[in-house]
Structures are given as structure tokens and as C-alpha cells.
């Protein structure tokens, strides 16, 4: 239940100090005093990040059921006497980040906090004036206490009243110092967990070998200081009081030297560590470059988890030591920026020469080892490249080789025999030369992570599905960021009943991989950031055979146009198979991206749009086709004579025979005469005899056309074998249909064979009245007018000019 009251938010929470009730959130409301709360059932009030300066003895009236109060980051300057008199059940009080001093907490302020278990007073200016010892001493039920270090870290005898205190956290403030006597008055308490995060504010020159002597019940220690690992290791001498009591953890994380010098530990540095029985040790980010052997020791008999990450360890013996510890379960070697197996060039060459002659090297890790993390470690295992190595780990369940500096998945000389391994991560390694038997001896494998491993090259060689063969328990595979376009079809043959999750994010898939046909129990498929634009019929068929599948298709260039309508319909009908579909977007070239889900929910509108577009396309196609047909018909009509001329020439060529056409004289006549039937007497009685006198070869239809042949064919043939064409242009010729045809053929002949056209113009016909087709080739035409019959001189001049023109052609 959530409700708003005034400026605050009321939220019901189930577990606040072991009880349920209303959590009243009043953060960042600019309150200057504690607001009155009228909501029933309030057990916690959070007034953090306000401007409250004082807590009075009437602020919490009527709040007898209150369990928790939070005043983090206010401006508290004063807490009055009996301020918490109405909060006798309060178990959590957070006063961190205020302006409280020893004197600003009045005597009796904490008198009624008899049930308080958790108090946070850090980040207050107690460093010079000291702690409010008397008031803190009243809190006999306190179990967890967080405060800042004072200028000289020490605790008065008032703290001895905190018999139930189990966890003490001390944070740095301004510059301070501590020594062996800092915790002297806490010796009669049973503090189990001590957290000292001193960073760079503490002095580093005081003796601390006995600093933890008062803590005889210590189970967990966090000690962080820029004095360096070698400095904090000295403090372990004081833990010998624990004898053989086992500690849960020792955490020296980030205890690196302030000057950044590398720390190469020696036997003296680890002398006290050897005698401590602890389950977990963290030396993370301590600038350590080497650790001497800790065998044999109590430490090596007890240690179960070790974290040496974020260092520069380069000694091979360090890794072997921890990997073979008797009870070791987890080893963290991640983020080591210079991990190498040193060897001289001569030694490497010697090993390389001996490799074919010597048997494989077997390395057996601890039987208790369950997890190894060497991720983000820059490794240069030069010897491993030349040694046939078999590594055995009976109980190892998880190993992380993520972004290591050598291509483990491509090495054929290393075999991993981990029969209990459940998870392996080789992301970031170069698997372009993939060893297809890399996972062969990992029969219990359930999870494989191979992000960014160049599998687009490595898996291309797996044509028979060898890589995952035999891994019948495999449930999850991550092949992200590999530029994959397809998977080997038989890759998952052994996972038919086990595969549940397949991650293919950030690849180049355009369709659903065919390999999914063999994993019908797949439940989740991550295809984010691929190149899917639609689901093809084959892809739909594959997905339909996966009844329990959930698919993530975000960040794909999905086509939401009419081209993908069937795919969108299928998505709509199978919308329950998709997760985060509201975040998948259409790949529109212009304008804002549209969610695929929005298109799916309004698919009818797209269908109508597509139908309209279809009819528009059909209409455009019909109109275009009709326009093209009309254009072709018009062009054919416009150039019908030319087309007919060409057709007739071809027909004549084949009809008369190829050989006959080759031997026939291409210019058998000097001229061909075209005329209308009305002018046939003029041609026969006047024109033909006169030209014959000049020994010119003349052809015209009344003399040469063969009976039975078509007129058009004869015209084409005789014009084609004549050097010149003469037209007798009279009024009747202008109206003569075949005259137009002969003009068209003559025009083509004149252009094709550079022939001459002569016009005998009669009946006072003007040039403007001549057929247009003649005017188009006027540069090929020589017009001569027929003179009057009464003028013999002009008639004689006409014949000379006419005959000369024919001969010149």
C-alpha cells in the first residue's frame, strides 16, 4: 500500500527490526524540524537530506511504536535531554553526516533508548572533542556501531558497558593516529567484527603489532590504510590470542602504499599470517607483486577463499600454492595486469625441442576447489604454448577466463579435465582458430559464455557440430558480439532436451538460425542488436516449433512497411512469444522511430494502407503499360513505312535466296520513276523514250513490275536497286496513296545509300505544297519544273538539266 501524507511518502515494509509497518519517507523535503506524523502504524521515519537542526523532547510524541529513525545529512547541532523518551522501542538510529559534537548531545539524550541495536554517528565533528562517552555508555543493547576516528583514536571506560556490541566500524575523518593502546578499554567486550577503513588519513609510523589484542572473539577483520600491506600484516601478530579459533574473513582490500611502490612480500612479512586460521583473505588492490610460500602453515590448512585481484603478481608459485590448498574453494586472480611465467629464451627453445619427446604434464588442483576467476588478467604463459598440459580439478564448478591475454580456446596442447564444471566464461579471448575439442572433457557443463571471441571465424570450421558434442546438460549459451551470420546446423544436436537459453546479442543475424531446429525446449532467445528486418517463412516455421520460447528483438532494423505485412501479422498472432516488444522500433528512414508494438496494435490501418498502395501500384502499372502501348503504336504508325520497308527487304532477301541477293547488281537501274496512274502516258510517251535515248537504264511499274507480286515489295525492290528516284509531282500524285509510300521508301533509300531524289514538278505546284516527307530530306532533293509545251527552248533546257542530274547521281 502506498499513500501520500503531507510532503512524505508512506510505504508498507515487512521487516523493520523484525516487524512490519509503515515506512515514512520524508527525504529531501527541506524540513527544518521534525514533522508531525499522523499516519497510524508508522514504524520508521526517514528524514535524511533535510535541514533539521535540533531534536527536542516533544518531537516524537505519540510514536511509541517507532523502530527506526534516519537523520542522515541534516544540520543537527543539538539533541535535547530526553529527546527520545517516546521512542523506547527504537532499534535503529542514523545520525550520520551532521554537525554533532560531544557537547551538543545533552546528558540524558539517549536515556530511553533501551532497545537500540544499530547506531550510526559517523561524519560528525567528534575528531577533536572526543565521543559523547556517557550517552553512548547508556546504550547497553547496542550491537552495531559506526563512528569516525578521533584525533587520537581511543575509547574511554564508558564503552565497557556495551556488553552486547558485536560490530564496530570506524571511518576516517580528518588526520588522526592510533597505536597498540587505541582499543585497550574494549578488551572485556565480545566484538566479533571490526571494520577499520582509514584510507590516507592515518599515520603510518606507530607500532601496531598488538593493536588487536583486546579482540579475543574476533571473527571478521577489515583493515584498510594507505600505509601499505606490509604495515597492516604486522597487526596480525596480535591475533595469536585467538589460538586456533577460525576467523570468517580478513579483508586488506586497497591497503596499498600511498607512494604506489610495488610490494614484494617476504617470509618475515607473512610470518604472522601463517599462524591464523581464516576462511577468506582479501589482498585485492594492494599493489602486491609476489607472495612467498605459505606452506606448511595453519593458514594454508584453513583458507577456503582467496582474493588477490587487481595486483601485478607474476610469480607462478603463488598461483599453484593457492590452487592446491587443501580446503580452498574459491580463488580470485582477476585483473592482474602483468601475469607471466618467466623463462629465458634458451629455456623456451629447449622446451619446444623436447615437446614431441616428453609425455604430457599433468596438473592436479585441489579437490575442494569450486571456483576460479582469472578474468581481465593480462597473461603471458609462454611455457604453456610449448607444453602438452592436462589440468585436473575434481570438484571445480565455475571458471572465468574472461578477457585473459592468451587464446585458451584456440590451444590444442591444453586439456581441461573438469568433470563437475558447470560454468565456463572465455569471453574476450581470440577463438578464431577454435579448438573444436576445447570442451570435450567438461561433461557437466551447463553454461558457456563466449562473448566477443571471433566465433564467426572459429565456428566456420565446425561443419559436423563437434564443439558442443556430448554436452547433454548444457542449458545456456552466450555467443554475443561475434559478428555471426549463421550457426552450424548441427551445433546443438546433443542439447535437444537441455538447452533453455541462447544469447545471440550484437551479431549479424538476418534470420533465425537453423540450428534451433534441434533444441525444441528453448525458453529464451536473445536477438538484440542484430540485423533482423522481418521473419521469413523459414524463421516462422522454426519459432513455431519452439512452444515455450520467449524472444527479445530490441535494436533490430525492423521493417514495418507493406513488404513485411505477413511477418507483422505473425508477430501479432504470437505476441506472447516476445519480451520488451514495446522497446523494439521500426526502421523508418525519416521521422521519429515508431515502436513495433504500436504498429502491431494498429495493424488494420497498415493493411488498409497496403491495399491502397497495392491498387495504386496496379493502377500505375496499367496506366504505364497503356501509355507504353500507345507510344509504341504511335511510333509504329509514325514510322510504319520504315518498318514496312525493313520487313519487305528482309522478306525479299529470304524469298529470292541468299546467293541470288549476293550476285544481283545492287544498282541495276540508273533511276526509278514514281508517278500516279493518271501520269502513266506522260512517263511512257515522253519521259521514258527521252531517257532511253541517253542509254540510261530506267525502271517504272508499267514496264518492270512482275504480275502477281505485291506492289509494296516491287517498289522496295526496284528503288533499292536504282541509283536515283524520280517523282513526277502533279496534283493527282499528291492525292495518290501509293505515292506517299514510294516517297517514304525513297527517303529511306536516299539516306541509307546516299541516293539522289529528283522532282519533276508540274501543274504549278509550289514547294510549300510538296509532301512533308520530301521536305524532311530536302538536301537530298533536286527539284526541276516542267516547262510549258509552247516554249521549245525551255523544254530543251529542261531535258539537258534533267538528264545531267540523273547521270551525276
Model regions low in confidence, pLDDT < 50 over at least 5 residues:
1-5, 339-352, 658-665
Q: What is the averaged pLDDT score?
A: 84
Number of separate strands: 38
Radius of gyration: 52 Å
Structural class: alpha/beta
Number of helices: 19
Largest sheet: 24 strands, mixed
Tell me what you see in this structure.
It is a single chain. The chain is of the alpha/beta class and 809 residues long. Helix content is 24%, strand content 19%. It has 19 helices and 38 strands. The protein has a 24-stranded mixed β-sheet, with no helix packed on it. Strand 18, helix 4 and strand 19 form a beta-alpha-beta unit. Helix 8 (565-573) packs antiparallel against helix 10 (603-638), helix 11 packs across helix 15 and helix 15 (711-720) packs parallel to helix 17 (737-753). The longest helix has 36 residues, at 603-638.
